[in-house]
Inverse folding.
């Protein structure tokens, strides 16, 4: 469970919010605070006021995976294997354990054929998959995706969605402009001007947003 209490940070004003484990989609207009919230959940920023707890602990107390809007710009290493291994090497895991984990994650996400490729030669979709693999390699307690699907075509977006469906992570929080993808989450959060206007199941939130630009895709919220 993610618990937010008394949060005041930049545009955000969230007195009390509970997000269940599973996949949470965050939607709302530009400037609503989506990125600010996700950076706080990832522990990249610290709240000016208030508290965020992920399963009882501040985000920085545990492993966090983060993928931003342009995954290709955040790849640090020239070879895919080294990119996926980087969070494990940063925490100084033993080499045999690093290798075992890299190959396991790559296999789970079906990118094992890319491990020896140069990251600079990957397609946009491949870069997104590699960034996701690196984010998941250290078995994070929370995976945060800030519109990581924005640069993907339909086929690549569906592939990444399939990867997320197979990923083993207690909390996945993703901001997206695509209502079809938002509808596939377990919980939906709608922000406007830094405030939570709707929080609940995709069916309930999309029903409340009927007739707005955030209306659900036809049949998209049915599970």
């Amino acid at each position: 469970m993610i618990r937010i209490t008394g949060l005041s940070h930049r545009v955000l004003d969230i007195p009390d919010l509970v997000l269940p484990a599973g996949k949470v989609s965050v939607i709302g207009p530009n400037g609503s605070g989506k990125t600010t919230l996700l950076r706080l959940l990832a522990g990249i920023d610290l709240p000016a006021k208030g508290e965020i707890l992920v399963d009882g602990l501040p985000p920085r107390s545990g492993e966090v995976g983060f993928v931003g809007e342009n995954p290709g710009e955040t790849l640090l290493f020239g070879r895919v294997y080294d990119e996926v291994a980087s969070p494990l090497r940063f925490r100084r895991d033993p080499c045999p354990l690093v290798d075992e984990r890299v190959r396991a994650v790559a296999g789970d996400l079906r990118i094992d054929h890319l491990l020896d490729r140069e990251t600079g030669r990957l397609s946009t979709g491949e870069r997104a998959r590699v960034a996701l693999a690196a984010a998941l390699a250290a078995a994070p307690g929370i995976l945060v995706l800030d519109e990581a699907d924005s640069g993907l075509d339909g086929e690549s977006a569906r592939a990444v969605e399939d990867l997320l469906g197979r990923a083993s992570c207690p909390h996945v929080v993703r901001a997206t402009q695509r209502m079809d993808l938002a509808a596939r989450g377990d919980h939906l959060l709608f922000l406007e001007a830094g405030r939570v206007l709707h929080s609940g199941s995709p069916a309930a939130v999309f029903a409340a947003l009927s007739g707005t630009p955030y209306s659900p895709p036809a049949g998209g919220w049915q599970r």
